Input
Amino acid sequence: MQNKSDNKNLEIKFGGDLHEISAGLFIESLTSFSIVSQEASAYLSPSFTFNIKIKAPQEGSFIMLLNFIANSGGDLFTKENLSIAAEITTVVGGLYGLKKWIAQNGKPEIIEQIDDNSIQIKNKNGNITIDNRVYNIYQSSPRVRENLRKTFSKLQEEGDIVDFSIRDQDLDKDIFNVNKADFPLMASGADEIEQKRQRILKNNQELSVFKVVFQENYKWEFFYQGNKIYASVKDENFFKKIEKGEVAFRSGDRLFADLEIDQVFNEAANIFVNDTYYITKVVTHIPRNLTLQPSLDFDNLGE
Output
């Protein structure tokens, strides 16, 4: 049974005097919305998955009703994640809203940190204050920017649709809306936030294991240099040894591993910040209780 707090009821409205829309628009809009939502979910809580269930469209303007459900994946469930569906909804609305602001006002010229949670973007045409997470996802995810454009590229081909909106039914308010006149601007890739990225490699780094996830495409959770991080493990030799039962893990174990870190330049802070972590090679495993299991050197194990 789903808790009320871990799902959201949304509607996507294609405004106008219509009772149907083309299959191409329906599929493109829903696919793009789903990808933007997945990227937001991956940023907010990588251990979560979610499902979007489509309910029967309403009559009048074509309206898709969606049930937006967060799935904690069994043992990954914690109280702090109960509101993840609501958080994803808020961030997704913010991403569409940021795209609209940039489309209408042009490329940001000044990006300023307001407080721990907010960033203000300015140019000669105006300003907007947004959630830090919205800015970070928009800046760091080409998939988000591409799929926002795709939605409106398809919409501008449909002459009968006069507006597009996303509504939070639970709160009875729009989280995004835009008129037909702005569809071409929303479909454009011009005036985007420029992204500066770099990759750094750090060998033999110490990480404390917090959560182990063996499902494909899920990230493990670690503490690294005092901070909780999510990292993809790309060491195939390491996984082979796990599959053979040569090593077992639990929370509090330590790894020494080669770490690859993708960094994104934060304009507001004028610094590169860590964005994505990859473990390319596990060197050593140190169990939490050394009396139960000896340390394992993966380079020499099995030789």
